[in-house]
Design goal:
A hairpin with a 7-residue loop joins strand 2 and strand 3. The protein has two helices and five strands, in the order H-E-E-E-H-E-E. The chain has a single domain, classed as HIT family, subunit A, CATH 3.30.428. It has 111 residues and is α+β, with helices and mostly antiparallel strands. A five-stranded antiparallel beta sheet has the order 1-2-3-5-4, covered by helices on one side.
Length: 111
């Protein structure tokens, strides 16, 4: 049996993380290697490896991840601008194979 991924271990409180928000279905944590002043990770508590691992039964879950980004933006000062990034697959830069969105804000970002 494969060992739980690092995000599953964080969700199970087996590893520490700075929790920003939590719902029954989602966990938002501070990224340990931030690429912007605000760099949070939005992840489902259900283990889904990547976007391609989502099924029709995950429609509400994926929508709640996007709506969480909206909720998080309300914590930001000013214009509440942010970038939402999803790396899907190793070639795209995904290193933890548990679906997660990178919520980035707090700096001027290049297009």
């Amino acid at each position: 049996m494969e060992a739980p991924c690092v995000f599953c271990r964080i969700i199970a409180e087996q590893l520490p993380a700075k929790v920003i928000e939590e719902t029954n279905d989602l966990l938002v944590i501070q990224d340990i290697s931030p690429k912007a002043p605000v760099h949070w990770l939005i992840m489902p508590k259900k283990h889904v490896a990547d976007i391609q691992g989502l099924g029709e039964e995950d429609t509400a879950l994926s929508a709640s991840m996007v709506l969480m980004a909206k909720k998080l933006s309300e914590k930001l000062p000013g214009k509440k601008s942010f970038r939402l990034v999803v790396n899907n697959g190793h070639e795209a830069g995904q290193r933890v194979f548990h679906l997660h969105f990178h919520f980035l804000a707090g700096t001027q970002m290049e297009p």
